[in-house]
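Researcher: Let's do a round of design. I'm pasting the structure tokens now; please hold your answer until I've finished.
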């Protein structure tokens, strides 16, 4: 739908408009919502600039006029708009993107239940807005949650984890992404929190991506195995800490974790590949589902041993993805991948020779 000059828009609005996409909060947005309140299902407002307070007020007022929204993508809303959205049984997906100019006044907000919302996404400056929404709302049907924050202080991360666990979505959430790349966040000094343990109660998880400072702090073999045993359906696990922490997950810990997760096909995790604590010849275990292994910037010494462990344990991994920082690390993993390919080629050739011999 193209937006026409103010004063004439009502002449061009189709009476059955179902989808509307705007690149600005148009002065006639309220008119669109009024004329199409009973038919508008998909409203997308992607703004390439920072909205003003007046524009955000107009947006929230307009949203409260919509009666049949199914999907909504827009800048941050006020409490009154969130309250209205909670009363829409048709609403399935909400995505909020933009800077929050006015913090939500939680003292005047009535707890709400979004009965049928299955997907919730936030792209904001800080997590405060997201925490306020999650603390004061219930999402009993939520399957997907994503938050991208410019900065995520440790205190906000703790509050966000707690709010997520309290929003009645523990038995429904299947996909969780929490991302923040600002590396200026200091390491927590007095907290015993390990982020991954905050998600053990989400038993239906299929994918989990944590990519924010210190998201892997205090993670070890035991906690990784415990987490995997809590997620019987997990397909993808990405733990990408932008802060350099000592690697603590060994090959033995990886083996134990993989035994708990037969469906896992993607794993991104910093590994301690200096410590060769497993003998693949003595311990025959293969995880055939894992196809993508990203070891981040793991250091390595015994390239031949690492290649053989990967070949023996992970037959579906064609090559290992590694970080780009440090020429020595890159070269070492490139050599591991070459050795891995050589082992696979030799195994294929051996099977062909064996098959040909049997045929004779």
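Researcher: That's everything. Go ahead.
Model: Designed sequence:
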């Amino acid at each position: 739908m193209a937006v026409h000059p103010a004063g004439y828009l009502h002449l061009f609005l189709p009476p059955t408009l179902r989808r509307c996409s705007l690149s600005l909060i148009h002065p006639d947005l309220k008119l669109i919502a009024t004329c199409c309140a009973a038919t508008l299902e998909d409203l997308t407002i992607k703004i390439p600039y920072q909205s003003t307070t007046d524009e955000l007020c107009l947006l929230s007022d307009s949203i409260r006029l919509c009666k049949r929204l199914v999907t909504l993508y827009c800048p941050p809303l006020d409490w009154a708009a969130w309250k209205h959205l909670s009363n829409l049984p048709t609403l399935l997906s909400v995505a909020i993107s933009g800077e929050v100019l006015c913090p939500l006044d939680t003292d005047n907000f009535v707890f709400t239940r979004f009965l049928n919302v299955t997907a919730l996404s936030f792209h904001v400056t800080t997590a405060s807005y997201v925490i306020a929404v999650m603390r004061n709302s219930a999402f009993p049907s939520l399957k997907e949650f994503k938050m991208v924050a410019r900065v995520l202080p440790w205190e906000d991360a703790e509050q966000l984890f707690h709010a997520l666990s309290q929003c009645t979505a523990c038995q429904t959430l299947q996909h969780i992404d929490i991302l923040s790349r600002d590396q200026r966040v200091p390491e927590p000094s007095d907290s015993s929190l390990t982020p991954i343990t905050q998600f053990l109660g989400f038993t239906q998880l299929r994918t989990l991506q944590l990519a924010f400072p210190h998201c892997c702090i205090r993670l070890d073999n035991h906690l990784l195995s415990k987490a995997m045993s809590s997620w019987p359906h997990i397909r993808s696990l990405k733990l990408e800490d932008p802060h350099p922490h000592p690697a603590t997950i060994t090959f033995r810990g990886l083996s134990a974790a993989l035994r708990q997760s037969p469906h896992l096909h993607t794993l991104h995790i910093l590994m301690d590949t200096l410590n060769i604590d497993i003998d693949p010849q003595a311990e025959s275990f293969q995880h055939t589902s894992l196809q993508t292994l990203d070891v981040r910037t793991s250091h390595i010494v015994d390239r031949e041993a690492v290649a053989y462990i990967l070949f023996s344990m992970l037959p579906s991994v064609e090559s290992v993805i590694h970080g780009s920082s440090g020429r020595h690390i890159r070269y070492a993993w490139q050599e591991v991948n070459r050795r891995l390919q050589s082992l696979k080629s030799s195994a294929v050739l051996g099977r062909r020779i064996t098959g040909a011999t049997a045929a004779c």
